[in-house]
Write a structure and sequence with these properties.
The chain is of the alpha+beta class and 466 residues long. It is built from 14 helices and 24 strands.
Length: 466
């Protein structure tokens, strides 16, 4: 057993690595050790105080803080963290934000106070550029173009200006504000939790437009979600229903919403006043909606309402920064040596496919964002499952691509998606699609090496194409 002086030395040496290991670690000290029953053992222990943060995607804190460090036992204490700390010129999802409106001859008046939801990009801002707007609720930021937007701490000791209102949409209770150039922008994360894109949870004409794993979870009331609000911090809930239409005469929000239930009989369990504007994410860290309000049942169960994020994007003509550009950037970006990108680039046809993807990726992204017919066809044709299978084959070298998806052959699914693009895409996209579709259609059932051989074997066809 280390001596007391050795224990002090170990604690001071290891506290740096503990802070670096997990952002939930609040402090590290030395104190008396306790056994499993809570009784003192007469030994010194390294006390590790952490936030009991229910944010999804984080491992149990005991998996991060081992029971023993260099022969010294650790004593773990978890404390609550109600809301993100004031960032100070850092636009971060989950922080307090306030909107002001002004009139000639009158001082600014407060429009609303709530939560900064997430950074986003307007049309024309490429994914490799800094997000240029912040998303929250209209009743938080206001509807006056140029209205001042500030961020502040819970003590309201200061109110640095973030930017000004750019655009709002009353039916979705959503608004965006510019970001001043001297502000740091949190991208692809909310309060440190890494995001993984978006999930569609509201049917666009049919259930097939939902992200594939959503409907089974809705049927079984197991679709868990979370949000980080300025008032209540991270909380968890369950999606009760989707396509939730509100009575028009009683509500300004006219967009079918997502209804979220608290996980217990507590009206404040998922959201309170001040959480409006926060974004809701699911258990896979996908953004699903913009929180705008709530109520409670007669027996005290809290209900929260959120507008589907795709509807917010469509109305405000933005793309939320739910993943880093490195994840969603063009496939022609450099890859590690020996990776699938380099393997493709080793053949003429492979380079042609990569170039096609790089040229047309922005247009396809725009179709997914703005074209409801394409979104419906994309999900009906099992586009997400095709992409997931191709990604698994390229990155994890799974045994083989499936020969069929949801009862139809791989080739039929490719043909269905190709037809959707052909009916909505530009002439240049359709031209290149006709060249590459036979290759994609022939990949069903093939393994990694077989897929590369197929691409290499079609080199003459692609070389001959204009």
């Amino acid at each position: 057993m280390p001596s007391d002086d050795d224990t002090l030395h170990i604690k001071r040496n290891r506290q740096v690595s503990l802070f670096a290991a997990d952002r939930r670690v609040l402090g590290v000290g030395l104190g008396g050790n306790l056994d499993a029953t809570g009784h003192p053992t007469g030994e010194l222990a390294i006390w590790v105080v952490t936030y009991a943060n229910p944010a999804p995607g984080l491992p149990p804190i005991r998996d991060v803080v081992p029971p023993v460090l260099d022969g010294v036992r650790t004593h773990l204490i978890e404390v609550t963290k109600d809301a993100p700390e004031f960032q100070g010129k850092r636009a971060a999802g989950g922080s307090w934000v306030r909107g002001y409106a002004s009139a000639p001859g009158h001082p600014d008046t407060v429009v609303g106070t709530g939560t900064l939801g997430i950074a986003a990009r307007t049309e024309g801002t490429p994914d490799d550029k800094r997000p240029d707007v912040l998303l929250s609720c209209r009743h938080v930021l206001g509807a006056q173009p140029g209205g001042r937007v500030v961020e502040f701490s819970c003590s309201q000791c200061c109110e640095p200006a973030v930017g000004r209102v750019v655009l709002d949409d009353q039916a979705a209770d959503a608004a965006i504000a510019s970001i001043n150039g001297d502000w740091e922008v949190e991208e692809g994360r909310i309060d440190g939790v890494k995001l993984a894109g978006l999930a569609s949870v509201t049917p666009l004409g049919s259930w097939s437009s939902l992200t594939p794993d959503v409907l089974p979870a809705l049927r079984n009331f197991t679709y868990g979600v979370a949000k980080c609000g300025a008032e209540t911090g991270w909380t968890k809930g369950l999606v009760g229903c989707v396509d939730f239409a509100l009575f028009p005469e009683n509500n300004q929000v006219q967009v079918p919403s997502i209804l979220i239930s608290s996980t217990g009989k507590d009206a404040t369990a998922f959201s309170q006043h001040g959480d409006s504007g926060s974004v809701v994410i699911d258990g896979r860290q996908r953004v699903i909606g913009l929180l705008w309000g709530g109520s409670s049942t007669a027996d005290g169960i809290g209900l929260t309402y959120a507008v589907p994020i795709q509807e917010v994007e469509r109305r405000l003509k933005i793309r939320v920064a739910a993943t880093s550009p490195a994840v969603w950037g063009a496939i022609v970006t450099p890859a590690p040596p020996g990776g699938p990108h380099h393997a493709l680039a080793g053949t003429e046809s492979g380079r042609a496919i990569l170039d096609m993807y790089g040229r047309h990726e922005p247009e396809v992204r725009a179709l997914l964002r703005d074209s409801r017919p394409f979104v419906v066809a994309w999900h009906r044709g099992r586009g997400p499952e095709l992409v997931a299978a191709l990604t698994a084959l390229a990155e994890r070298r799974t045994e083989a691509l499936p020969a069929e998806i949801a009862g139809r052959s791989w080739a039929d699914r490719v043909a269905e998606l190709s037809g959707a693009v052909r009916g909505l895409g530009s002439p240049a996209l359709v031209h290149d699609l006709d060249r590459v579709t036979p290759i994609l259609a022939g990949l069903g059932g093939r393994g990694y090496e077989q897929a590369l051989e197929l691409v290499a074997g079609l080199e003459p066809d692609l070389e001959a194409a204009p």
